[in-house]
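Subject: two folds for Thursday's group meeting

Dear M.,

Sorry for the delay on this. The cluster queue was jammed most of the week, so I only got both jobs back this morning. I'm pasting them in the order they finished. Each block is the input sequence followed by the predicted structure tokens. Could you check whether the formatting survives your parser before we put anything on slides? The first protein is the one we discussed after the seminar.
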Amino acid sequence: MSILRSIDSNKIIKCEYKTHPHDLSCTHDRRPQITVGFENIYEDFYRAELRLFLDDEMVKFQWSDALQVNYLPEKELEYGEHKVRLVIPDRKNGEFHINWVFYIIDKNKKYNIYYGNPHSHTSYSDGKGTPTDAFECARGNGLHFLMISDHVGRLLKNNSSYDNSISFHGCKYPKWEMTKLEAEQINFKYDDFVALAGYELSTVFWGHINFFNCDELVSKKKFMIKDMIQWIHSHEDILLSVNHPFKRVGTLKCDSPFNKNILLYEYGNGCPPRKYNRCEERYYKALDDGWIFGAINGQDNHDSNWGEAENLTGIFAENLTKEELIGAMKMRRVFSTESKTLKLSFKVDGYWMGSIINVKVGERLRVEINVQDKMVDIEKVQLISNGGVVVHEHNFGESGVFKCIVDINTSIENTWYLVKVFLKNDKIGISSPVFLKYNEI
């Protein structure tokens, strides 16, 4: 049951509806049919005055006898994000809004793979060295990007720091401000490496979470659910990842308001001298529960060894810039790898890994799997769906390249598909899933 809140009276009502294209979903169609279908209509809704907005412009729609709002764009829409809002007047309680977003994707767009580490620490919390030391070390070890994610508690506890290796007029700055300044300095210095500044926060509801794309530092060492709701409401562009899930039992329910911001999940975590852990079963369980998570791998460095380990996150992006990397992570075009040389490409009907796509039950979909590793032999490749069930498998003797096309028929029981790669020496690669959203009201 969906929940609507009046923007005028703050009244909450239950109202069953479905949108198409689905919220956060992708389509190649530049003139998609836009619909809101209701199972029932709240008695005080004033249907004669419904208003539909596409990208903040009011459009003329058709209202069917089947309790459905229908709109077909008059011309092709631009590639990228499109926002839809249905305004529903209520005789007693003011207006109710249904808001959602979909993406029009260019299926011919090409991407490069960039490798890096989205989880690391320095002496600004419980690691070693400065952010500058970390960025330089990671670049020297062949990484394309590194995110510093020092612990919020330490960043708040000691308010000032100074890095003698770079000049900021001899001034001391709060540690968080210093981290951002050092990242800016590295990004100005190099065009083949991206330095990202983030931080790691403890929560009572899901352990540790990394904050990406957020300039403001939180003011608490630990967040309650209500704290996170308020923060997301005022920082809509932030991107969050679930860190080392093996340390915490259970998961947050998927009907939380966080599903649009918590988009990444550490399938793998750790590097020497700490133990490396995988969270495969928990990852599958979270996907089965409805979470839309991309698979990443974080070294979680607490020593001066940024980028030395083989476990990394691969990102498909058009160019190596901060904006492109963040945008790709928001779309979950990422994969977890335990080999620095693994190339793992996975598409369903032309949609990249991480995509949410609109489908019908019984529809036939074409899966494209492309795997390559010039340094480590590929032993086996699996296509996996709900419950960790293997849908397709191919075994090798010795090979550095694998390409195949698999046809699948959609079923309501299957809401996601991903690719798992078995490499020599017990190394694993995991793609982000392609998520299926069924069109039936």
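Second protein, same layout:
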Amino acid sequence: MRIWSIPAGRLFGTDIRIHVTFLFLLFFVWLTESGPHGPIYPARGVALVGIVLASVMAHEFTHLFTALKFGVIPKSVVLLPLGGVSMVDETQQAFASTTESWKKDIRIAAVGPIANLAIALVVGAIVLNVAPQINLWAHPYLSSAHLVRSFVWCNLGLGLLNLIPAYPLDGGRVLRAVFSMKTNPIHATRRAVSIGQSIAMVFMLAGMVQYFERAGMESAWVALIGFFLLLAAQLEERSAVFHSVLETVRLEDIMLTDFASLSPADTLEDALNKAVHCLQDDFPVIRGGDMVGIISRQKIVHSLRAEGNGYVQSAMNRIFDVAQKKESLASAFRKLSSRNLSLIPIVEDERLVGIVTLQNLMHSMALLAESRRLRSATD
């Protein structure tokens, strides 16, 4: 999600990111509204995409404000043309299958469509009374040549579309909440995703058939909606698998048992030389069998540049946390993020038996998530 999206700021501690599919949407608008000699309204095409983005932001920010009231703070929200995909912090019980949880999910999902429908009704009423010459009922409903009309219909369409029980649309989120009453949340998500993908394919096929029969703009938009819905469903499925990995995989399954360590009496030049000849970015600092600190490759280089050659003891971070072999990846993330660390030692009977670095944690999770996704696809 981070690779295919760009940062757009933070709101109440949540990273807001815009998915690159908005660029595809801009290209689609220019292509479908082009004349024989190129785009007719290139600037208005950008404005139309801006209207879609503003409608999606109103939709998702309403979700976010409601989630905050329930104590659910997403780590990030990726905005797509049909809505957003939320990544909840790993330390939260995002997939708790309690009665209060599914009720909460339904309430959070419901406010998004309500916000868009309310905006459409209010703005539409104002337009009908103040500027009746703007024909809200004329075709095409979405066009760069009629931005006010497009704003009303974009919000109306986004609100109605999200009532469809196709995950990850809000109707699909309600469906997942219902499924989670009788099964675990991961299976509920996968069932909802399967239904969402089927509906997305219906949209795409229906749009393409109608487009070739009538070559109408609305038909092209229907096919595009199906494409975006299919993409969003795949992103949500990956998110569900990611959380499944966090909760079920233990640190003993991914910890490094063959690792390099440093002594507090080592010089920074010796430490840099050891760092050059191994793949580690972070090193435990051990004195007489006891771990006394952590130092990173970047810290070694920075200290050498700033203060010259000294000892590891003077540059190491003495604040760290430890974990047990049986703890989950979610627990490791909590400990790493709480103190902004990049390495956590794994101990057993007060003896260091391995380490987990943020680097190998992310790498292992990516591989495990992909493995589980492929395994579920073949089941």
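Two things I noticed about the second structure. Residues 99-130 form the longest helix (32 residues). Residues 5-248 form one domain.

Cheers,
T.
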